[in-house]
């Protein structure tokens, strides 16, 4: 409630940016997400997600050096801001809390495990 | 790897349409991905994916990157438009009176213009239901008699065959026709009185009737009848009408061979309920049988469709002498000329004067078209006047907007969008008004119009006009006010600049007010004169008494030979005081005849008279008034060859002592002699606007078509009618009891003029209303501007009367100028209009004076409301503000 809302896809992108540690730009993020999640993503989705994240102040970006393979064009590298990192941690905390309660209950009753 | 390049088109698209802020990295990413795809999935798929991605990365599919710095002003940025709309609505709500005047006035003006537009459309599309609209014509003729050229649609019987045999190459279809009239249709014991016509078998094709049952060939059978859809339904209900047997006028047996779709209301034949074969008509009565070879008997109509390759003019030239070549030597002097009257002119151009077409309803099409344009113009003038006047109050707003960075194009678009908004609201309101007032308008105009919701032209015109009004009205504030210098506007220095602008702006504004009142005053004068003309004609002495005068047409043979029985029965019942029969209804003349001779007649005079055959008591029934001599009387057996003539006849014949004059009719062995026994005052039977034609009244009990009844004034009309109906049902059970009242028929003669009067007065009221709205708004604006001045004047000792005079003077002056312009214009047009009428009212000076005083009074009332309010204001208050 306190933090700004983060969509599922945005969260994945944000995580990817964090994981890539400074090497995050459009193509590398796309490849990473395809590899890790197996879902098909398009470049435009990545770009708009990054723009939204930047709007919310969870990532920041700067232009890199020109590279030959891109026809001399620069890459825009993204890094997670402190606010972005805190948001990720909060999300994680909330999930952990829920999971721990679920696990405790799961030990108490076998039925639930059968059902799930 | 570098060998394959991405699709150039897609690259170009991306270059052109990607958002500038992120174009570089997007292009780079895509290029990198492309290389990757070529390696992994092959070039074909890679190209495809490149295309797809490039498209999706273009604007507006890709999200705009929010600007981190101030955006450049964009002409149509949504935020600003939202702001303009908000400010516009706030302005409208803040000045409720102005908004009402502005929107209401414009809506009324638009509604009037739309109604008139619909009316014009209806008039101009008259008869266009017929597919052969451009090729169908009525055959007419012109003849010269006593030096005058007469034009008529009645032609002789043999002309049809003559055109068919000798000039057949010019025509595709030809059809003789009887006059459309009421006939009795009988099916079993059910009787209907319906309007119908006898025509030749080609007629359904020529008029492109839509056959719902049976075929267009239906009239080829000798004893057949085609019914209109509504009549078929009324007679047979849901049953199949085909091959059912009916009777026309209780004497002609016919079989239904077809049903056609009802003709729409804006066609000449809209009332045509049935068509029967011409051949049946031609053998139905002895006088028609005789007429088959009579070139002198003009009693029929002829319709024609010309061939596809030819033109009316060509055909006209060929058939010119078609009748002249066949008439007797004695009739050659009339020089009959046959010509075609095209269907497209039937409705709008049907007036003839001295052989020349002089218009007809087309004049009203023009007149109302002009009125519509003017009313709309008035509304637009108001709208422009008020919006420009009001916009000057917004100089501060403009100053602030400019100070915080508005550029001129933004201010222009703001004012334009504001006026477009108001016009749009007015347009919607006008549509609503039209929809609501259409039933009333249809009744007044005798039309069945509908709003052309689905007609693209209607929308194109309506929206185009709205757009134009909005742009024109908004252009002054948009262009002029946006040029203000912000500092001056904010400092309140605008008073200085406004005094210059007032002089500059107020001249056109004054011109517009003058124009408005010119139109209004002209319409007032017009309305008064139209009404006076109607009243004048109504008050004309008609020469008989139409009170309680009832007329019944003798439509079938059963009516004849029962005169004495009917008369005695009806008189005994007490419902009537007298009964007679006549060949024409009292309110119309059905026959004219020539060939009369008398002692002292000018040999060159064509002796053409209205001839009305009547029974003995006709005079007593209708109450005609004698000037000389006596009425027909049963006491004189010689009266079967007596004549009663009217005053016009005495004058026409040029005889000093009419009583006893012998008149011979006819030249051959059938010639008869009559003696004039009485002279009556002129009876107006035909048009109340024309002079009464010379008429002979002859005694006859056979050649009559109408029963005339004078109801007993001591009894109520409904009581008498019930009694009369009972007698008729007993004496003539097979005929429907169908009656008319002379006063109603007489009143119907004024319908056209009254319609114009009602419409003209309606438009006049609206025009004045709109003008006053404008004046009211303008007055309050002026008063507001001069609040301080009025305060100072009051402090210095001006009285309320002084101030009232000061403020009203300007407007009164403008209205006086308008009156000066309107008077000659109105005089010119109305003088022309009145020339159409032989009996016409005078255009007296008091009409102009009255409308001038009226306009002035209205002006003063409108302006005084504002000026007195301003004059009564406490000067302390008005001086302290600001």
UniProtKB/TrEMBL annotation, chain A:
Quote the protein name from its UniProt record.
PadR family transcriptional regulator
Q: Which SUPFAM superfamilies match?
A: Winged helix' DNA-binding domain (SSF46785)
Gene3D superfamilies (alphabetical): Winged helix-like DNA-binding domain superfamily/Winged helix DNA-binding domain (1.10.10.10)
Pfam families annotated for this entry? PadR
The Transcription regulator PadR N-terminal domain extends over 20-90
Lineage, top-rank taxon, reads: Bacteria
Checking InterPro entries in the record gives:
Tscrpt_reg_PadR_N, WH-like_DNA-bd_sf, WH_DNA-bd_sf
Automatic annotation (TrEMBL), chain B:
Mind naming one GO cellular-component term on file for this protein?
plasma membrane
Q: Which UniProt keywords apply?
A: Cell membrane, Membrane, Transmembrane, Transmembrane helix
Which Pfam families does the entry mention?
FtsX (PF02687), MacB_PCD (PF12704)
Location of the protein in the cell: Cell membrane
| One MF annotation (Gene Ontology) recorded for this entry | transmembrane transporter activity
What InterPro entries would the database entry show? Answer: ABC3_permease_C, MacB_PCD, Macrolide_Exporter_MacB, Permease_put_prefix
Q: Which residues form the ABC3 transporter permease C-terminal domain?
A: 370-486, 763-875
Q: How does it sit in the membrane?
A: Multi-pass membrane protein
Bilayer-crossing regions:
97-121, 364-386, 415-438, 458-481, 511-531, 759-783, 811-831, 843-863
MacB-like periplasmic core domain residues: 99-320, 517-726
Q: Which NCBIfam families match?
A: perm_prefix_2
Q: What's the protein name?
A: ABC-type antimicrobial peptide transport system permease subunit
């Amino acid at each position: 409630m306190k933090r700004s809302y983060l969509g599922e896809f945005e969260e994945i992108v944000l995580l990817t940016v964090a994981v890539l540690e400074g090497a995050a730009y459009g193509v590398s993020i796309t490849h990473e997400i395809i590899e890790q999640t197996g879902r098909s993503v398009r470049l435009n989705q990545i770009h708009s997600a990054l723009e939204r994240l930047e709007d919310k102040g969870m990532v920041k970006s700067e232009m890199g050096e020109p590279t030959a393979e891109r026809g001399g064009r620069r890459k825009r590298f993204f890094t997670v801001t402190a606010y972005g990192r805190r948001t990720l941690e909060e999300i994680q905390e909330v999930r952990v809390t829920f999971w721990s309660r679920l696990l405790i209950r799961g030990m108490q009753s076998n039925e639930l495990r059968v059902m799930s | 790897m570098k060998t394959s390049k991405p699709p150039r088109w897609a690259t170009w698209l991306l270059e052109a349409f990607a958002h500038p802020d992120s174009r570089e990295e997007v292009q780079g990413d895509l290029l990198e991905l492309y290389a990757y795809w070529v390696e992994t999935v092959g070039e074909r798929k890679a190209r495809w994916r490149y295309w797809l991605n490039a498209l999706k990365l273009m604007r507006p599919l890709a999200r705009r990157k929010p600007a981190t710095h101030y955006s450049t002003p964009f002409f149509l940025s949504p935020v600003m438009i939202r702001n303009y709309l908000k400010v516009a609505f706030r302005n409208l709500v803040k000045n409720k009176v102005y908004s009402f005047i502005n929107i209401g006035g414009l809506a009324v003006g638009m509604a009037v213009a739309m109604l008139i537009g619909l009316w014009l459309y209806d008039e101009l599309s008259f008869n266009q239901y017929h597919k052969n609209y451009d090729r169908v014509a009525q055959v007419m003729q012109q003849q010269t008699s006593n030096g005058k050229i007469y034009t008529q649609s009645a032609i002789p019987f043999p002309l049809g065959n003559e055109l068919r045999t000798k000039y057949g190459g010019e025509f595709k279809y030809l059809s003789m026709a009887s006059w459309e009239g009421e006939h009795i249709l009988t099916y079993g014991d059910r009787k209907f009185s319906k309007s119908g016509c006898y025509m030749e078998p080609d007629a359904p094709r020529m008029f492109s009737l839509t056959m719902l049952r049976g075929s267009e060939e239906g009239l080829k059978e000798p004893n057949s009848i085609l019914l209109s859809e509504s009549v078929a339904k009324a007679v047979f209900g849901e049953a199949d009408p085909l091959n059912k047997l009916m009777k026309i006028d209780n004497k002609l047996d016919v079989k239904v061979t077809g049903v056609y779709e009802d003709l729409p209301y804006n066609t000449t034949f809209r009332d045509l309920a049935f068509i029967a074969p011409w051949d049946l008509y031609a053998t139905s009565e002895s006088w028609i049988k005789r007429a088959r070879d009579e070139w002198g008997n003009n009693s029929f109509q002829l319709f024609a469709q010309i061939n596809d390759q030819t033109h009316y003019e060509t055909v006209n030239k060929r058939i010119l002498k078609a009748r002249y070549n066949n008439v007797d030597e004695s009739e050659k002097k009339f020089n009959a000329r046959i010509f075609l009257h095209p269907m497209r002119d039937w409705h709008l151009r049907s007036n003839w004067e001295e052989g020349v077409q002089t218009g007809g309803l087309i004049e009203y099409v023009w007149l109302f078209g002009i009125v519509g344009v003017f009313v709309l113009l008035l509304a637009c003038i108001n709208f422009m006047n008020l919006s420009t006047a009001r916009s000057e109050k917004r100089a501060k707003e403009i100053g602030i907007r400019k100070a915080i960075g508005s550029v001129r194009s933004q201010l222009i678009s703001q004012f334009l969008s504001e006026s477009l908004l108001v016009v749009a609201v007015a347009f919607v309101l006008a549509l609503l008004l039209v929809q609501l007032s259409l039933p009333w308008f249809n009744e007044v105009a005798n039309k069945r119009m509908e709003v052309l919701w689905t007609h693209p032209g209607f929308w194109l015109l309506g929206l185009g006009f709205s757009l134009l009004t909005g742009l024109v009205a908004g252009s002054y504030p948009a262009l002029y006010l946006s040029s203000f210098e912000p500092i001056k506007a904010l400092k309140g220095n605008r008073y200085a600049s406004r005094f210059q602008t007032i002089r500059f702006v107020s001249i056109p504004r004054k011109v517009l007010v003058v124009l408005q009142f010119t139109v209004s005053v002209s319409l007032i004068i017009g309305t008064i004169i139209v009404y006076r003309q109607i009243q004048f004609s109504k008050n004309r002495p008609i020469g008989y008494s139409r009170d309680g005068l009832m007329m019944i047409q003798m439509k079938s043979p059963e009516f004849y030979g029962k005169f004495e029985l009917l008369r005695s029965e009806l008189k005994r019942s007490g419902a009537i005081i007298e009964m007679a029969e006549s060949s024409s209804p009292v309110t119309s003349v059905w026959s004219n005849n020539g060939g009369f001779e008398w002692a002292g007649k000018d040999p060159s005079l064509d002796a053409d008279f209205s001839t009305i055959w009547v029974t003995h008591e006709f005079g007593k029934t209708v109450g005609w008034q004698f000037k000389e001599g006596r009425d027909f009387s049963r006491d004189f057996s010689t009266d079967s060859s007596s004549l009663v003539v009217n005053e016009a006849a005495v004058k026409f014949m040029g005889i000093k002592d009419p009583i006893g004059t012998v008149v011979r009719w006819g030249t051959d062995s059938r010639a008869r002699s009559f003696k004039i026994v009485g002279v009556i005052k002129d009876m107006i039977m035909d048009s109340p606007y024309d002079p009464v034609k010379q008429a002979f009244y002859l005694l006859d009990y056979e050649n009559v078509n109408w029963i005339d009844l004078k109801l007993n004034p001591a009894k109520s009309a409904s009581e008498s009618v019930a009694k009369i109906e009972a007698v008729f049902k007993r004496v003539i059970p097979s005929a429907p009891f169908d009656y008319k009242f002379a006063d109603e028929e007489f009143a119907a003669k004024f319908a056209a003029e009254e319609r114009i009067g009602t419409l003209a007065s309606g438009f006049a009221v609206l025009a004045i209303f709109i003008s006053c709205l404008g004046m009211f708004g303008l007055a309050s604006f002026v008063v507001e501007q001069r609040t301080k001045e009025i305060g100072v004047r009051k402090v210095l000792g001006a009285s309320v009367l002084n101030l009232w005079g000061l403020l009203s003077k300007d407007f009164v002056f403008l209205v006086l100028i308008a009156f000066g312009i309107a008077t000659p214009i109105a005089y010119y047009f109305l003088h022309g209009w009145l020339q159409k009428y032989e009996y016409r009212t005078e255009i007296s000076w008091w009409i102009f004076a009255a409308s001038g005083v009226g306009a002035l009074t209205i002006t003063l009332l409108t302006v005084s409301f504002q000026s007195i309010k301003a004059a009564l204001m406490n000067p302390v208050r008005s001086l302290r503000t600001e």
